[in-house]
Records
---
Amino acid sequence: MSSSNNTKKRRVGGDTPAVETDNNNNELIAIKSSIDELVHQNRTQNDNIANMLQLMKGMKDDMKGMQSEMKDMRGEIAQLRKKCDKSSADIISRFDGMENKQKHHDVLLKNQKWEYSAPGLTVSYLDSIGVDQRDEVEDLLRQIQKYTEEMRYGTSDGDITLDINEVEYNEELLPHWKEFANALEQYKYDLKFSPKDNKSILQLVGMELSDEVVDLLSEALKSTHFRHVLLQDNNFGEKGAGFALDYLKGNDKCEEFAFRDNVMGTQNVEELCRIIPLQHPSKC
Amino acid sequence: MLVLYNCKGADVNGYEMLKSVMNAGKLKFVVLYLSDNEINTGGDTFIATFLAKNPILATLDVTRNELNDDDAGAIAIVLRRNSELRTLNISRNNLTNEGWEALGKAVFDKTSLNSAADSNHTCNIDFPDDDDYDDVRQINGDISSDKYLDPDYVRQKKIYKVLSDRNRNRSNVEHFDEDMQVELLPDMLQLIEEYSNYHIVEIGEEEVTPPQDTQDIEPLSIMFEILQRWDKSLAVFEAFGSQSSVR
């Protein structure tokens, strides 16, 4: 009885514990459902973020690939530019070579009618010098004529070496030096046209070179650039050294410069030291 | 290449000329001839300082000047650190035996194996023709023919020459460090064998044979000396003997 009463009381009361429980359960279910919804939403968002990250990673990889391609293309462009520069330098060089070859041939054609015309030495001059000196002078003139003709006729092997044992200068030698200097002047096309492994030597050993001869050679050698130059025992003082250094300064092909038994003054040394840094390292 | 041979004018000091030219051309000249220019350093060490910087200079000719033993000594010190200079012509100066010996030590210091290994292996010097310099005259090559040898070959040759020289008076063991472990013995014997073959040089796939010193001692002789005279090597034989008896 008591238990049925109790039941009644609960029912009469309306807000019985059973109803409360149901309500609570419903609330819990609702909350759980909300949480599930939120979790689901969160998962979806996370999936979206992961997808986006994946997408970004893919884009990043694509970017990297594109950057790498760009880098390769830049490298290729640089290489192509280099090739272009090289080809253009090559074309210019070949063109210059052809021009020099043409000029060289023109000079050779012109020189077919040329003859060595410096007069012989006078008897009075030959008598005035000793026998030994006479032999040396005659040897010098033979060498001058030989090299002058070789340069004029295009038969030179690139080695121009005047080598004798001490000849003093005399006015009678000047016409011969003029012939030699003129031949040197037009020999520039031969030197420019000839292959790089050919000889390119100018050696003046043992003869006195007067101021006049130095001026002649200086003018003649302005564009005639030998790779190896030796000036030895020329008794031409500091003016001669100045000529040699001017030649060295203007000659960007010079690989060997030898100055022996000739005087160099302080100014010459200073000038030399100004010139040296201008020379290309590979030429020294 | 720059050649300034006997071209010092009356108002030019040869040494000042050398300094100016070297300073101006330190990154330019591979070959520099400055013979017969009355070059006198007066105790200054410019040439040595220049060479110490290991410039690209491969040939220096300062023959027929007024350089002395102090100059040679200073150059000798820096030569050990210079691997570019291939030819040094310094004869016909005021050098005495002292200067030449210093230069000789620079290219081949026989004091120890380390000093021999650390000598200059690239520079040919125009030593006097005296017998005193036979050992060093062509040690790095032949100056008269501008023939240069591979520095590794020269280094090994020098090391083996020291070992050979010591073997002649049975003194190799005297130079061993007291703390040296007997465990090093196999490596030591192997190295002797290797150094004795210094004249067989492999360049790429090719095997070339530069000249072998006719004064060389056979490697077996050096090995025998070490095994015989090094008291620690006895332990090896004892160990070997005990192993044999166990078997």
---
Amino acid sequence: MALESVAPLPAGVHRKLVVQREISRLLSPLTTSFVAAALRCAFGYRIEDLRGFRREYRKICLEHDGPLMICANHLTMIDSFVIAWALGSPWWYFRHFRTLPWNVPERSIFAATRFLRVAIYVLKCLPVERGGDRLEVTGVLSCLANVIANHEVALIFPEAGRSRTGRVDPDSAASGIGRIYRSASHCRVVCVYLRGDHQDAYSDMPVRGEVFRGSVSVIEPKTNYRGLRASRDIARQIAQRLANMEQEYFDDRK
Amino acid sequence: MNQTEIFDQVVKILTPYVKNQEALEGVSLDTHILDDLKVNSARLVDVVLEFEDAFNIEIDDDDVDKVETVGNAVELIEAKIG
């Protein structure tokens, strides 16, 4: 499979990312603890076999020192927080900061106020306006490709937005994810499928007291295509794996 | 192949992906593919791949980012055809 190289970021953008990462690192014991406490205590969320999830992620991170990207199904606005909570404890993230994933939240929701902008800044988020200015979106994707190539972890939703049908649709996978994957040599994809018992469809927030169940698996998609077709093929393989995990989830629930 | 023929072919390829049929009726070189025609951004790659097949050309990932209007697509294809 032909790999693309990651275009280096402009010096100013690179500097900003480094500063954001270091500030996030310093504050991570506070921020990750706060998020975990809020999800668990304020919203009453639970994750079935939380230890198993974290053990699996730890194993993946320790076995593979190279680029990792997390790809997940997407049903609510706070999925990225729930996933980060599911995959690691605040202590783990403090000790292995690279494994705390960068996120790409929707700007109109998560950067609407100054407080939110500060909050997502210290939580390794790069806000983007989905469907917005193409150059800006490309710039953010370029930042993600760079952090992944530098062996940090990023969380990306292959379908870009929340699944409008409530189910993963491999055909709606955005090829940008395949492009990012192809730009990082020896990249592995950590597929995370997580769904609450009451999540029949997409929504803004999971219900209070929701119990999440799911699974984690790792893939290294390969393709014989080139260029755009390769990116689309990779994106579909990732989304298809999530769709398969979804099927397993529903089979287990029968 | 002249610009008009390329334009017609581009519109024909775009048609199944267009959600705003009214905008399609008045389509021109300045029509924005995502904003005016409301083509899903995730589907834009499928559109570009159909351009590749129809015109027997290869379009780079980076070039896709430059395709915003129907005119951009026509210009890109014209340049690739030579």
